Amino acid sequence: MVSPARRRAAAVYLVRRHGISERRACALVGQHRSTQRYRPLVPLEEAQLVRAMNATAARHPRWGYRAVWTVLREEGWKVNRKRIERLWRLEGHRLPPRRQKRSGKRAQGSGENSSRNRPALAVNHTWSYDFLSATTRRSGPIRILNVVDEFSRRSLGSCVSRSIGAAAVIRHLTKLFATHGQPQAISSDNGREFIATSVVSWLATYGVQAVFIEKASPQQKPLRGALQRHHAPRSAGH
Question: pTM to 2 decimals?
Fold first, then answer.
């Protein structure tokens, strides 16, 4: 059996959430309209408690009912937590949405850095690098960092590992610089490993410009197909 109070709350929810009439909402929950419209007399003590609760909630808009209940207890109200929770919900209090922390840096790309607007003019003029995800026969995920020279369309080398962070990107580029020389610029998307301050600063020490394409614009990737076709060397041991 559902109590009239619960049916009343259900009818109110249907009216607010779905915009239907009170008559239809009462018919759906099996509540008589006179019962739905009945408002019990609130004792004076509870009315004062509600006012105190609302005042505390207004002073601290990011608090929940537990924190408000603690303050009310400190102010001398002899009330248990469940009662405050019930009154809190009846008054329609809700916590504001939490601010989501940004992870890493913001995207730095621009459409001006697309391969169409910045074509490679010679070997080692512009490199491109990107990640490829794969799975081994042991059902373990791996990441593959492919590096390609845009002008010659030649694969310069791949790095394969279970995890590749900014430090691993720097180590891989160090080997490639020693083997192939260093480019004037290196192009990528806005992956956190590429826009990391450590990577951008390290490239700057070699005079290499870090070029980022516009966020969520894979069509701007230079040699996108070539970067995705190059696989890891078999000597990787995965």
Answer: 0.50
Look at residue 52 and give its three-state secondary structure.
Answer: helix
Summarised one tens digit per residue, pLDDT across range 194-229 is 888 899 999 999 999 988 887 655 555 655 555 555
- The number of angstroms, rounded, from the C-alpha of 56 to the middle of its chain's C-alpha atoms is 32
Q: Which of 183, 133, 184 is nearest to 162 (CA)?
A: 133
How far is the C-alpha of 27 from the C-alpha of 147, rounded, in Å?
A: 67
- Residue range 23-46: average pLDDT? 83
pLDDT digits (tens, 9 = 90+) for 57-106: 999 888 899 999 999 999 999 899 999 998 888 888 876 666 666 555 55
Going by the DSSP 8-state scheme, the letter that residue 145 receives in this structure is: E
Assess whether 119 and 168 both reside in one domain: yes
Q: Look up residue 147 and give its amino acid.
A: V
Structure tokens belonging to residue 81: 């937590």
Tell me the Ramachandran region of residue 155: left when phi exceeds 0, alpha when psi lies from -120 to 50, beta otherwise.
beta
Query: What range does the domain containing 161 cover?
Result: 111-236
In this structure, is residue 77 part of a structural domain?
Answer: yes
Write the burial class of residue 218 (CB in 10 Å: 0-12 exposed, 13-18 middle, 19+ buried): exposed
Largest CA distance in the chain: 86
Same domain, 128 and 193: yes
131 and 162, same structural domain? yes
Q: Is 100 inside any structural domain?
A: no
The number of domains in the chain is 3
Q: Do 192 and 166 fall within a single domain?
A: yes
